[in-house]
């Protein structure tokens, strides 16, 4: 049996929750007995306590209550304990005697806790937590990284005395069967979304409000196009914060900015299908799921060349340095040419074929067996 350790739901880490589900469903579909456990919001469910108190109540749920539940599950002696998110590597110490694998999505917060610039600054308690996480990574039998860029950070920061932990790279698969839709199907879905003018083209950005996503850059890049292209800018994911709304207003583009808060998969699929391009000038990433999601729908991707993004986008990415906002804008305008866009759309579809959830699950099963699991 494979015991999967997932994420605390009150932390609202949507991408990690998706990965947890991918692993559970993928292993079960492959005939592997797997169980997913995760910290439950017992004290953390009291959401009116104030942000500071909520955080500490969450710590009690995660680091005091959950280890007791984990110990009970370990008593059945699973073949593999798979910590699905490196931020939960603090539990590795509790798994003495078990074969433990940890998936490393990125070490940006760890690096921030060590004083490196990753747009992930850490408080005093945050620095302690990140060092605790790093200590847990060192105790694991194996670390699986979602990109070569993340693997390089792991090799640099994780002490591998006596060759342990072993390090592998397994790229993420698609977490939903994104595909190219018939135009009328995609438009019918978007007709249900308030604020979108289907008579106007749009550029899409998908992601959270984290600073490393560079949403301020997205706004500035789009503003460079406004005099030459009558289109919209759609943000899918977190709503814009006050500073970004103020920036949009200062740039004179507020009337062209549309927000679609955390869209369902079928709506996001339709957005990718109808967008002129995905604009993704991110500063730091662990992998870049939106890049391959967009490409699977035939949506060209204009993105930064930072970290692992070129690994995901492949030869279908249209790359720029993060600060080359004029270059980003020029390529968005270039894609308004139908022939140009169609050429990049075809490249995108071909590149997306590399990222299969079945392939990802198969690679994980191979690593479990290399660790000695009899599955």
Poorly predicted runs are none
CATH T-level topology of the largest domain:
Rossmann fold
Main pleated sheet? 6 strands, parallel
Mean model confidence by pLDDT: 95
Separation, N- and C-terminal Cα atoms = 8 Å
Name the CATH architecture of the largest domain: 3-Layer(aba) Sandwich
CATH superfamily of the largest domain: Glycogen Phosphorylase B
Number of domains: 2
What's the tally of helices? 14
Spatial order of strands in the largest sheet: 2-1-3-4-5-6
Structural class: alpha/beta
**Rg result:** 21 Å
Compressed to H and E, one letter per element, the order equals EHEHEEHHEHEHEHEHEHEHEHEHHH
What is the share of helical residues? 40-55%
Question: Beta-strand level of the residues, as a percent range?
Answer: 5-15%
Annotation, overall tally of beta strands: 12
CATH class of the largest domain: Alpha Beta
Which properties best describe this structure?
alpha/beta, Rossmann fold, 2 domains, six-stranded parallel beta sheet, 14 helices, about 45% helix
Write structural notes for this entry.
This protein is an alpha/beta fold and 375 residues long. The protein folds into 2 domains: 2-173 and 357-370, Rossmann fold (3-Layer(aba) Sandwich); 183-352, Glycogen Phosphorylase B (Rossmann fold, 3-Layer(aba) Sandwich), CATH 3.40.50.2000. It has 14 helices and 12 strands. The protein has helices spanning 14-29, 51-74, 108-113, 124-139, 148-157, 183-190, 215-225, 242-250, 265-274, 289-296, 309-313, 325-334, 338-352, 357-370; strands spanning 2-5, 34-37, 80-83, 100-104, 142-145, 166-169, 202-207, 232-237, 257-261, 277-280, 301-304, 317-320. The strands form 2 sheets. Strands 2-1-3-4-5-6 form a 6-stranded parallel sheet, with helices on both faces. Helix 7 (215-225) links the parallel strand 7 (202-207) and strand 8 (232-237). Helix 1 (14-29) packs across helix 14 (357-370), helix 6 packs across helix 9 (265-274) and helix 10 packs across helix 13. The chain is globular. The N and C termini lie close together (8 Å). The model has no long low-confidence stretch (mean pLDDT 95).
């Amino acid at each position: 049996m494979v015991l999967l350790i997932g994420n605390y739901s009150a932390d609202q880490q949507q991408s990690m929750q998706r990965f947890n589900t991918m692993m559970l469903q993928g292993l079960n579909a492959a005939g592997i007995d797997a169980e997913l456990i995760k910290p439950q919001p017992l004290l953390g469910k009291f959401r009116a306590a104030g942000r500071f108190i909520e955080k500490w109540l969450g710590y009690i749920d995660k680091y005091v209550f959950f280890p007791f539940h984990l110990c009970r599950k370990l008593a059945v002696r699973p073949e593999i304990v798979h910590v699905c998110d490196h931020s939960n590597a603090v539990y590795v110490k509790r798994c003495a005697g078990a074969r433990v694998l940890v998936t490393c999505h990125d070490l940006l917060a760890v690096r921030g806790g060590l004083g490196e610039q990753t747009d992930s600054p850490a408080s005093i308690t945050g620095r302690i937590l990140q060092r605790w996480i790093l200590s847990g990574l060192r105790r694991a039998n194996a670390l699986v990284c979602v990109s070569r860029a993340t693997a390089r950070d792991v090799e640099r920061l994780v002490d591998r005395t006596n060759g342990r932990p072993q390090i592998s790279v397994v790229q993420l698969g698609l977490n939903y069967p994104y595909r190219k839709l018939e135009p009328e199907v995609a438009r019918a879905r978007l007709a249900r979304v308030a604020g979108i003018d289907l008579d106007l083209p749009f550029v899409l950005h998908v992601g959270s409000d984290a600073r490393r996503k560079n949403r301020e850059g997205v706004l500035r890049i789009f503003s460079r196009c406004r005099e030459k292209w009558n289109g919209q800018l759609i943000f899918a994911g977190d709503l814009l914060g006050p500073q970004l709304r103020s920036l949009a207003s200062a740039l004179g583009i507020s009337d062209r900015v549309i927000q679609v808060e955390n869209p369902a998969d079928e709506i996001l699929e339709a957005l990718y299908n109808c967008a002129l391009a995905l604009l993704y000038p991110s500063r730091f990433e662990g992998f870049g799921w939106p890049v391959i999601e967009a490409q699977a729908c035939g949506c060209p991707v204009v993105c930064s060349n930072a970290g692992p993004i070129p690994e995901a986008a492949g030869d279908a990415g249209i790359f720029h340095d993060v600060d080359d906002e004029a270059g980003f804008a020029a390529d968005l305008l270039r894609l308004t040419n139908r022939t140009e866009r169609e050429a990049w759309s075809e490249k995108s579809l071909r590149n997306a074929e590399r990222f299969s959830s079945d392939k990802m699950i198969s690679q994980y099963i191979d690593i479990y067996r290399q660790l000695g699991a009899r599955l």
